[in-house]
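Example 4.3 (complexes with small molecules)
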Amino acid sequence: MNYSKGSPSLSASSPGATGTVALRWHGSSLELLDQRLLPAQEHWVTLEGASGVAQCIQDMVVRGAPAIGISAAYGVALAARHAGGGDWKAEIEQAIRELAASRPTAVNLFWALQRIERVFHACDSLSEAQKRLADEAVAIHQEDLAGNLAMADHALEAMGFSVGTGKPMSVSVLTHCNTGALATGGYGTALGVIRRLHEKKLLKQVYADETRPWLQGSRLTAWELMREGIPVTLNADGAAAAILAAGEVQWIIVGADRITANGDVANKIGTYSLAVLARYHKVGFMVVAPSSTVDMSLASGEDIPIEERDGVEVREIRGIPLAPEGVPVFNPVFDVTPANLIDLIVTEKGVVRNPNITGMHGLFG
Ligand SMILES: CSC[C@@H](O)[C@@H](O)C(=O)COP(=O)(O)O
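Answer. The structure with MRU bound is encoded below.
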């Protein structure tokens, strides 16, 4: 793994992209923007093999459900590219296993690997695999970006902002974690909806939860929004209740890491408490995610594997102690929001209102 310094400037690589990108594909290498260092530094990590990509997913150099899936797909393409030529199939299979073990909760990782694996099994030679796996990874990346743009349209319509309905009132929203260009193929899920509201002049204010302990909200979401001049106010997670009580927001908009067949949603720790707050304060609660986040094989959120990370992420920030040394820590990094607290699940395929098993089956079969 080569930790190279300095991305000159982030440039949009595809139509609809925002100017912020998390990953750059070069055919024989993958570059990942090291999200652990933002917003202080823009470092790009250059990877030439699947093990490095798996390590970067585990260490959160790259994070966010769709970006993890896209990176893993490129990781398999790299494994093919650099396969020794001997038992190339075994080398690629090993790469897939290693990538699948990197993080457990976001189903996009397994979805992308399964899609890549289907192509791999149809290949008869290493040269065919090298070409087709790279093409498939690029397709997964491009489709994710296109899906983000489509879900933003669906979301605005579901919020009642249809074309030609006069001059609607603008809204203020609260979001959690980072679901933007950094977490996806280049536009964002929940943050894509927020971007689209801003583009259409329908957005008054975004409140961004800082999102303890990893601070995706303060380090990444606030950074992305400020780069584009989108009005954002950062708040400590515990301030969300006071913001809602003051009537400051009309919608809470979040992403997802896995959505089960009954409409339960796993997302960044703290999402569930926001959904409870939204219901109490009669504020809309919207989940925005690509259909690759939907896992119809699981009946409910109880079946979702929830990642727990090292307590050091809560006890310290960059080596500075925030708690007594050795204090036991409970650090689940996702929680499950039950479907009955969710008003809308928005995907590129369409919208499920008041999600339940019937509505989910209607859209995702
Ligand atoms: C479009 S990203 C959706 C989710 O992956 C996001 O809300 C989230 O929980 C990310 O968690 P992370 O631990 O940063 O990978």
